[in-house]
Write a structure and sequence with these properties.
The chain is built from five helices and two strands. By secondary structure, it is mainly α. It starts with 10 loop residues before the first helix and ends with a helix.
């Protein structure tokens, strides 16, 4: 089910990539930028279901190509997200938020 909520990061996209699923998301909020970074594909939410169906057909029509591109980028993503750098960045965000509230 496509989301209509705006996210500032798009954690579900990162979770999708980590679980080995090609992210297919609406191009709203931070999803568009996060999808680019995490090998995702965006559809136009305001186009009803037409663009979603078209993107799904495109992926399934040439799945080996999409999977190969996704898998080659996914290994880099996994290293970045599971690294100490990611944890440090999250701690920094929470610390800044706490200090500024």
């Amino acid at each position: 089910m496509p989301t209509k909520c705006y996210e500032t990061f798009g954690l579900t996209i990162a979770e999708s990539a980590l679980s080995g699923t090609i992210p297919l998301v609406s191009g709203i909020g931070a999803y568009k930028d996060t999808a680019r970074e995490f090998c995702g594909i965006c559809f136009d939410l305001h186009d009803g279901m037409t663009d979603l169906i078209a993107k799904m057909s495109e992926i399934l029509g040439d799945y080996p190509k999409f999977w190969q591109e996704f898998e080659s980028k996914r290994s880099i993503i996994v290293q970045d997200l599971l690294a100490q750098k990611y944890l440090s960045n999250l701690v920094g965000i929470y610390t800044d938020s706490k200090n500024n509230s």
